[in-house]
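A note from the maintainers: we've had questions about how concatenated examples are separated. There is no special marker in the raw files; a new sequence line simply starts the next protein. For clarity in this README we add a label.
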Amino acid sequence: MPETRFRLGDAQVAALARWSFGLGNAAPELPPADAYEDAQGVLVAVREQGRLVVVEVPRWRPPSAVTRQEARTAWVGSPPADPSELPAHVLALVPAAGTSADSAALSAAAAEWTAVRAGGREVELVFVPVTAAAPEVSWPVVAEAYGATLLGTRVDAQPAGHRGGAVLFFTGLSGAGKSTIAARVVELLVEEGRGVTLLDGDEVRNHLSAGLGFSRADRDTNVERIGWVAARIAKHGGIAVCAPIAPYASVRETVRGEVEAQAGPGSFVLVHVATSLADCEQRDRKGLYARARRGEIPSFTGISDPYEVPVDAEVTVETRGRSVDECARQVLAHLR
């Protein structure tokens, strides 16, 4: 039989590392598979005769590779406001609360510590991600395992959550103005110096989803692909702006779950561009609605196929009598 491989989430990888280093009481419960890899496709563990064997866990260093004779101080959470407080050897224990978004959180935390060294401080830093605000074993025990003494006065562990990345997910009928408003939102974000990526529905159809049709299954696949790319952008602190029609509530909910699993709670912003069907037909420059009315375009959203109006949108944009700039700034106001 062919080998089965399973891709682990970030929290699962971290739990695997902690267990392999003797900092957890039991092996993590993983789905049945012959081999396990991390989000980047790196092999981290295999099953040999039913037994879980850890191969390698990137980003983690076992205590045996860290412990030294020099005195080392462990810090839980972010670095101190005054870097001069740091000793020459530092162990940074950064809690990530056990969420599947811990990769984004840990990247942000690592950047804080890197900034300390960039400031000219001669600090030997070992960065240790810990996926719980309160680990299975106590902070002093974790620190001791790495040959460090815990500095208890700076235990400022906070659960990792939303760390700046976001997905602005526009939905609405064809011709509602989604792409136009989304493009203006991108312009305004660029003017502010924000990192932003536009995933326009038509462009994604032509490239990422080339070959898909317009059945419900194909439409869902197209939206899920957009959501997956957007989630990866948000996971690493960027802003993704998406503008598909996304007519079905179930797939919008799937995308919300994917984004928040990778980038944390609050990272998904559903924007309903609530232009009426009558207004969309009136402004239809391509004549698509007329063709759909004549039966020339099957499964056309709003005519022969349903559009499920969102009941969970963070922002509802009414376009009648309003400029594109006004609509775009309403969306941006939600990010502030």
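[label: protein 2]
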Amino acid sequence: MDTVQLALYGGLLAFAVAVVLGLAAGSPNLWLRIPARVIIEFFRGISLVVLLFLLLYVLPQIWMRNPDLPFEGLIRNTFLLGVLALGINYGAYGAEAVRASLTTVPKGQWEATTALSMSWSHKMRRIIFPQAWALMLPSLANLWIHLLKGSAIATSSPSSTISLPS
């Protein structure tokens, strides 16, 4: 049951990360596009096992050395860290699926939104994203299956915590 919970929560987080980063990576604004590309490439380049190791073993070391830092309870929750690792890692892969599907919307649709003087957010919400949604569904479904398989690596009890010495 833990694997299914990790997959569901991780999948929801991955979808949110994928949409936000995918839209930012496809944005004409350089201040959105460049940081999104850096984040996507970083988390696509790091293995899920390495990310889990960093979150579960390295991150608590920071709180052991600096006890005044906030969110110590969140750092101790291994289930939450597993969801975070799955969501960020697979969200970065999903962001590429979102960005790629946005680029496959026919050029005439983009030109029509420009001719109608639509703002970027309005054209995304009303015209482009609904068309891209049908194109990104197969890729996102495939990534969710990979996330389900990857959640077995991160399986832990929702109530398990890391004990930090005081």
